[in-house]
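Whether sequence alone determines local backbone shape is best considered at the level of individual chains. The sequence in question and its structure tokens are set out directly beneath this paragraph.

***
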Amino acid sequence: MITATGPGNPGYDAIPGAQAAVADVNAAGGVRGHPVKLTVCDTHGNQNQAAACAQQALSTSSILATVGDDDYSGGSPIAGVLGDQMAAIAHKQYTPPDYSGKGVFATDCGGIGISAGMAEWLAKDGSKNMAALVFDNQGGQQVVAFLTSELKVLFPGTKLAPVLIPVTATDMTSYAAQAISKKPDGVLLALPENLTVGSIQQLRAQGYTGRIETPSTVLPSSAIKQLTNVSNLGAVGCYSYSSAGYQSFLAGMKAHEPSASGGDEAVNAWIGVHAFASVMSTSSQPLTRAGVLAAFNAQSALSTDGLTPALNFTKDTSITGFARAFAPTTVNHVVKAGKLADVAPVQFLDILNGKIVG
């Protein structure tokens, strides 16, 4: 796993999910009788170090694949370095190489997926004039450009007004005011946890009562406890919390990583390890890097036990720039009893066409 490991970074939550899955797999006899070992390479959120980690993986002959890679800094070269030489299973997608790398096998909807999911769920609920609070950097600008074009095609008449926020911002008072001044009937937040909490608090304090959507990854129970008003608040994620797969994940975490916080980052890494074990335990391909790549490229209906619809790695999407978006579906959640739960009945929204998949 190639990831940033410090507290508060996505990879910090993902590592226990991978470790719990490794324990699950090894307790069941490993892969064709071979135990699985997880090695973590810390990127420290540095692009050069991320590239070095990828090179280190390629130069270590015993490493057959990577799982759950997540370099939160953006512009990560991991997928570019690995190329088609090594499978990047459950690789988190943020930048163009993540969506085009021939060895990338995504198991979640990625950064663009979450952003598009928030906008499209708002549109599905009737929002016409949205405000988006995003970072004033390449990633934020990419999100705004993508959402603007997608909404124009999928939900004609829907408008998106960006509120660009410096990456050094800590106080959301003025940015909440900017968003409210645009008179939105829906607000989406593409921000880290602390700024998400601050934005929600300021939006409500300044009188906005409309719909707010956030990523589920930045709204854990600890963040929800800081909010005095959770009405009309949704959180979009990639996974169904009422699925059999999620129950298996919770059981695995309880058995092997009981002190970990869990969350969607851990789920993604957990899926990655189990996908590797499931595919390679039944494939006729050899346990080599080339064998792993071939086996995953042949998977047309990989089951996640309902965490997502079945994954098809055999067919690229037709969306320019997002060829390897193999898990383009999102789930909308609401706050119930201090934590997130699926909106019932469970529905997946395909961000590529704006349609509901039951």
